[in-house]
Structures are given as C-alpha cells and as structure tokens.
From TrEMBL, chain A:
Functional description taken from the UniProt entry: Catalyzes the isomerization between 2-isopropylmalate and 3-isopropylmalate, via the formation of 2-isopropylmaleate.
Keywords carried by this UniProt record: 4Fe-4S, Amino-acid biosynthesis, Branched-chain amino acid biosynthesis, Iron, Iron-sulfur, Leucine biosynthesis, Lyase, Metal-binding
HAMAP family the UniProt entry points to: LeuC_type2
Organism the protein comes from: Anaeroselena agilis
Pathway as given in its UniProt record: Amino-acid biosynthesis; L-leucine biosynthesis; L-leucine from 3-methyl-2-oxobutanoate: step 2/4
Cofactor note: Binds 1 [4Fe-4S] cluster per subunit.
PANTHER family in the cross-refs: HOMOACONITASE, MITOCHONDRIAL, HOMOACONITASE, MITOCHONDRIAL-RELATED
Keyword Disulfide bond annotated: no
Protein name listed in UniProt: 3-isopropylmalate dehydratase large subunit
Domain of life: Bacteria
Subunit structure as annotated in this protein's UniProt entry: Heterodimer of LeuC and LeuD.
Aconitase/3-isopropylmalate dehydratase large subunit alpha/beta/alpha domain segment(s): 72-285, 289-411
Cited InterPro entries: Acnase/IPM_dHydase_lsu_aba_1/3, Acoase/IPM_deHydtase_lsu_aba, Aconitase_4Fe-4S_dom, HAcnase/IPMdehydase_lsu_prok, Homoacnase/IPMdehydase_lsu, IPM_dehydratase_rel_enz, IPMI_cat
EC class name: lyase
TrEMBL record, chain B:
Protein known as: 3-isopropylmalate dehydratase small subunit
Record-stated family: Belongs to the LeuD family. LeuD type 2 subfamily.
Enzyme class: lyase
Free-text function comment from the UniProt entry: Catalyzes the isomerization between 2-isopropylmalate and 3-isopropylmalate, via the formation of 2-isopropylmaleate.
Domain (Aconitase A/isopropylmalate dehydratase small subunit swivel) ranges: 44-103
Amino acid sequence: MPKTMSEKILARAAGVPAASAGDILWVNVDKAMLDDILGPRVEIAEKMLEIKDEVWNKDKVVVISDHYTPPANAKQAEIVKFTRDWSKRHGIDNYYEYVGPCHQIMAEYGHVLPGTVVLGTDSHTCMGGALGAFASGVGSTEMLGILLTGKTWLKVPETIKVEWTGRLAPGVMAKDISLKTIGVVGHAGATYKTVEYCGPAIEALSLDERMAITNMAVEMGAKAGLIAPDQKVVDFLAARDITTGYELITSDPGAVYCETHAFAAGELVPMVSCPHEVDNVAEVGALGKKAIHQAYIGSCTGGRYEDLAAAARILKGRKIAKGLRLLVSPASQEIWKQAAADGTLSVLADAGAAILAPTCGVCVGLHSGVLADGEVCISSTNRNFIGRMGSKNAGIYLGSPLTVAASALTGVITDPRQFI
Amino acid sequence: MDAAIKGKVWKYGDNINTDIISPPQFMELSIAEAAKYAMAGVDPDFAAKVRPGDILVAGANFGSGSSRETAPLTLKHLGVGAIVAKFFARIFYRNAINLGIPVIECRDADKIASGDLVEIDLGRGVIRNLTRNQEYPCSKIPPHIQELIVDGGLVPYLKKRV
C-alpha cells in the first residue's frame, strides 16, 4: 500500500514493517536537541537527578545555547552557564553556544539526516523537514523521558499536501510561499498533521529557501513540515563530509493525503503577515503606507546566507530611511563568515544596518532589539504574536528579507519588486 | 479516583498562544515569579485573581505557538484545575498531560462564561454548568491518562512505576 513520508519514516524509527496515519508507535529518537531556554534548566535537570542522572546515548543528544546568547543580564548568563555545565557533566560533546539559532546549527553540523526522527525542545524543530527528516518540537518533560530512554510515543499524523507549480517571479521568495500557504491553511489548519510541500517551485528552491518554509509549518499547528529529499540534500550533506548513514525517504505515488492544496508560484506576489497572528496574511501592496520603526533580518527562519544576499542586492549603494533602524543577525557563525568574506555584510552595514551576533534574542524579544510601546517592526522571522518582541503595544509584521530590506529603504512596508 | 473536577471559570477567546500564556520576557525568572505574568497578553490580572481549582475555559486552538513548557507550568503553579477549549495546539496538549493538568476539548466552550461554576466528569465526558443548569459533551480522558494526571504528571507517574 502506498505510504506518505511521515508513515514511512515513523515506521522505520519504530522498527515495524509499515504504519498508517492514526497509528500510535513507540519510536527510537535519532537526535534529541535541547536549547538553553527550554532545555535542562526547565524541570529536566532537577527531575533527572531524582530518577537517573544519565542520558541514554550522549552521541544522540545535542545541546545548543542560542536564545540567551549573548546574555542581556545576570539571570540569562546563569541559564547559559547552567546549560553549559550540565552538558559537560553529562559528557555531551555536541554542545554549541554563540554559534547561532539551534535549527540552523543542527542542519549545518550534520545532526539532521534524511529519514531520521529529530525531536527538540523548540517548536521550530520542524525546520529539519527540509532535509527529509521527521523533525518536531516537544516539551521539556517529554524530552526528559527521551533523555532517559531514547524513545517516545508518537501518533502517525495525517498529511496535508501543498503543491506549488511553476516558478517564482523576481522579487518573490520562499518566505512568501510560506506566508501564502499559512494564510490559506490557517494557523490551526494543520493541527496534529504533517504539511508536505511539493511541486516544481519547491524542487527549484535551494536548501536555504526550503528551510524558510518547513521552519514555519508549526505556524499552521503542524507536527512536521516535509519536503522530499533530493540531490540538493545529498550535496548539502556531502559538503559536510556526510555520505552515508541516512536514507532518502519520499512519499509513494498514490499515498493517501487528508487534504490537498495547489498554488501557482508565478502568480504569487510579496506577502506580509500582519499583527498579531501569523495567518493574518495580506499582499504587501494592499497595506497602504504602513510606517515602521525597526526592520529585522535574522533568525532560524530568515537569516541564512541567501536571505542576507537578497537584502544586499537591493540595499547596495542605498541608505535606509532616516530615523529607522535595520538590524541584521546572520543565522550562524558560518553564515557570518561567508557573508563577511564576500562583502555582503559590508553592503548591509554601508546601507545603515547594525550587524548583531547570531542569536534568537531579537525574534523572541529577549535582547538586542526589543520594541517599545507603539513601535512597529517588519521582520523576516517566524512569529508576530502580541508582545513577542517587547511591548505588547508594539506591532510585528512578517515578510521576506527582500520585503524587509525594501521597507528599510522607504520607512514604510514596501513591495520589493520596485527595487529589483 | 475522583473523576469530577469542579471549579469557577475564567473565560478567554480563541488562539490564546504560548506568548500570551507565558510571555518570553519573563522566562528567565523562576516558575513562581514567571507565574505572576501568566496570561498577561490578554489579562494582566489573571495571576492575582485565579484561585487553586479554578477552571480556565477558552475557544479554539489554545496553546498554539512555542513548545515552551513554562506555559502549562505557570498555570499549574497557580493551581488551575483544568483547561477546557474547543481544541488545543498539539505540543501544549501533550505538555499539559505530561504535567498532570486535565485538558478537555468541548465544542460548546462558547456557552460557558467567566464566573460560571462548572463540574467536569472526566470519565463520562460531560461538563455540567451548574450556574446555567446546562450540560455539554466533552472529550473523555481514558483511565490510564487519568491515572497519570492524578499522580501529578509523567515524572511522578514514572517514579511510582519504574
């Protein structure tokens, strides 16, 4: 019987010949990821002391301090210190700090492999679906169980198929695909389900762009966001000296989907998500002149190399609007180095951008760019919930890095196509 | 076990996300301190007025957004006895069960208002609104999950049995 990617990957992880949507399986977890904000310091460390203070397999555990780095105050510094010390005490070699948001680091360092199950204490863990992994966010108590046993139970989700035909027009990015899809499916439309993206427009995207899409699957309530792994995934891994130990698992022709959506990429225009819900989506042109105070390019969703390069294309030789601030946080140290080496960061800085450390801090209002009452920000990140970036009387719009850059030039939310 | 939960209702709307329940700016605090800001996104006075055993009732998609367990943890710290919603976001639902908080899905959640006194029969899957003299069907919690909730969550449940 034909099967979806989710059914096949979860059956493999459970060691059963086949599984179907609705089955509840005990699966072996291939990689368990903890971050600083929701990792050991929330219940996990203390409760492990009470049960068994040893992780089941230290090579399968990855700990990444990314939300509170660099710390804004002594409490945040204590949390990072605690996370670092806990990891050391448990012999976890895969500990990272100050190198970038966890999902990017998981991908860059080869911890997300096609056909595997990756669970993490951050809801955007689903980004790993761009590499063909069944990746999903879990809470801290569930992670505690995984750390002790290496297993958890998962219900095999039904799958929503989202097909994008054709090709994107200039000035339109993967982020616009993501926002358009979320606007149609709705922020609870995929609750308990997998969203599988396919079609020529998706196949044509680079991995940087694909990650911007699967990252936001959880904004529809989804358990996982998947894209069939192909040669681009093989090349991405080969560049990291990984050529074996994974399996390219794709959905079978004729697999059963609970819902199907089809979109024409050629008709897509730049989109924004308006305050305070991610599915409150509109075409940029429909907003009128919406003034902004801050523009932000960064995070696990919108701070990859191609995002910075896209912004640099339209900021080159221009200056951002007076009185406005543009913040840029490359999604990793590696991206920082690449963008510095080829001059991309200089172009952004020359236009007036403040370049920040690779961090989650701005996206979630923990440090480096918190908004005041009445301020408006346009951001390439993944969430615009009320109060997320600081004051609950601030407004957050989400857009592609091109839209953020164009808006930074004019001071109002702007369709980037006029600068292309 | 006593399968009925009785309490006074605090009522909120649709799409109460985890940034509302547990604002990110307060996550570096202890759970006891962070709990003072629970639900601050929609009701800054929630922590001051909620009493142990009270029942939080909301609309659709309660707990959407982050995997942050500080959201159910702070509600648990304040003594919230149960959460009723039309439906829950996936990770929040799992987190609440793991922490021993009854989460009940009820299509008629809109018929319940703040201040109502309700009684939830977990085994039969019925919510009785004692203030309005109405009954609404709701999701049932199977006995083995009820045991986990009565034990106080996954960790005490496992400690007792492993």
